[in-house]
Design goal:
Blueprint: E1 2-8, H1 14-23, E2 27-29, H2 37-44, E3 53-57, H3 66-78, E4 84-89, H4 92-102, H5 114-124, H6 126-131, E5 134-137, H7 143-154, E6 164-171, E7 182-185, H8 206-213, H9 216-239, E8 243-250, H10 256-268, E9 275-280, H11 285-291
Parallel strand pairs: 1-3, 1-4, 2-3, 4-5, 6-8, 6-9, 7-8
C-alpha cells in the first residue's frame, strides 16, 4: 500500500490536494484523529486489501495532540511501515490574505489575530516539515499548477525536489517585487517602446521578441543568465530552498522584461527536477495608467 500523509499549514491547500489525490485513485480521509492513525494503518496495511493507495489529511483543525503524532510516526518507522509526507506551505502574507478572503477563523487563533494562529501552527508542525518527503509552497501556485505537481509525484512517479521557481517580469516604475530572490535589470536592451508599431505590443509578441533579442547584447545576456541560474539552482536545492523567485525588470514591465522572462522560462521548463511558472506582473499596467 502507498500511504501518503497530507499535512502542512492551514490555508495552504491541503483539502484541495486531497480532492486531487482522490481523482488520481487514492482512498482519502481528511482530518483523521491522530489516536486512530496506528489502527488505520494496521487495517489497510495488509496484503489482501483492495485499497492500494491511501492519503490521510492530518492537521491542527481539531486541536489534536501533535506530540502523539510524532510518537506514532516514530513507531511506524521502527516497524518498517513505509509512508510519505506531503507538506503544503505558503508564506504568512498569503495565508492571512486567504483567511480574509474566505472570512474563516484560523483554528489556533481563537479570538485573536490570524497571524498569531499562523505563528502557533508553524511551531506545532515544524517537526512534520523536517520529516516531509515533499514540500510544496503554494504561495504563487495556481490550482492547475498544483495538480500538475501532484501528478508528477503520485501518478507519473517522476523524481522530485522541493523547489518551485517563479520567473517574473516587472516594471521598475511600479517597484521591485518584495518576494524576489534574484533581480535582473534589462533596461540596457533596445526599447521597443520608441518603435512605431511595437509600442502597443508586448514581449509576448514575436515582433517585440525579435527586436529585443536580435542583437549581441540580448543574446549574450540570455546566455550568461542561463549559466548563472544553472549554477545557482542546484545549490539552492542543496540548501533546502523550496521557493525561488527570479524577477526580470525593465521600465514599464511590458516589452524587454517580458521577452527575457519568457526566454528564461522556456529554458527552465525543460527540466523535470523542479517546478516552474511564469508571471508577468505589470504587463498591462501602462494601458491602465494611460486610460486614467
Amino acid at each position: 500500500m502507498r500511504l501518503v500523509i497530507v499535512t502542512g499549514m492551514s490555508g495552504a491547500g491541503k483539502s484541495t490536494a486531497l480532492k486531487m489525490l482522490e481523482d488520481m485513485g487514492y482512498f482519502c480521509v481528511d482530518n483523521l484523529p491522530i489516536p486512530l492513525l496506528p489502527r488505520f494503518v494496521e487495517l489497510f496495511d495488509t496484503p489482501d486489501t483492495e485499497i492500494k493507495k491511501t492519503a490521510l489529511g492530518i492537521d491542527v483543525r481539531g486541536g489534536q495532540d501533535f506530540a502523539g503524532l510524532k510518537e506514532n510516526l516514530e513507531e511506524m518507522d521502527q516497524a518498517g511501515i513505509q509512508y510519505e509526507i506531503l507538506f503544503l506551505d505558503a508564506n504568512d502574507e498569503v495565508l492571512v490574505k486567504r483567511y480574509k478572503e474566505t472570512r474563516r477563523q484560523h483554528p489556533l487563533s481563537g479570538s485573536g489575530r490570524v497571524d498569531t494562529g499562523i505563528a502557533k501552527e508553524r511551531e506545532k508542525i515544524a517537526f512534520l516539515k523536517m520529516k516531509a518527503t515533499y514540500i510544496l509552497d503554494t504561495s504563487k501556485m495556481l490550482t492547475r499548477e498544483l495538480r500538475l505537481e501532484l501528478e508528477k509525484i503520485f501518478v507519473e512517479g517522476q523524481s522530485f525536489c522541493n523547489l518551485f521557481i517563479t520567473v517574473m517580469s516587472f516594471g521598475f516604475k511600479y517597484g521591485i517585487p518584495q518576494d524576489a530572490d534574484l533581480v535582473f535589470d534589462v533596461r540596457f536592451l533596445p526599447n521597443p517602446y520608441y518603435i512605431e508599431g511595437l509600442r502597443e505590443k508586448t514581449g509576448n509578441d514575436p515582433e517585440v521578441q525579435d527586436y529585443v533579442m536580435d542583437n549581441d547584447k540580448g543574446r549574450i545576456f540570455l546566455e550568461k543568465l542561463k549559466d548563472m541560474v544553472g549554477f545557482l539552482i542546484p545549490n539552492y536545492i542543496l540548501e533546502g530552498k523550496n521557493q525561488l523567485v527570479i524577477a526580470i525588470g525593465c521600465t514599464g514591465g511590458k516589452h524587454r522584461s517580458v521577452t527575457l522572462a519568457n526566454a528564461l522560462y522556456q529554458i527552465l521548463e525543460k527540466e523535470e527536477s523542479y517546478g516552474v511558472r511564469i508571471e508577468h506582473r505589470d504587463i498591462g499596467k501602462d494601458a491602465i495608467t494611460k486610460r486614467r
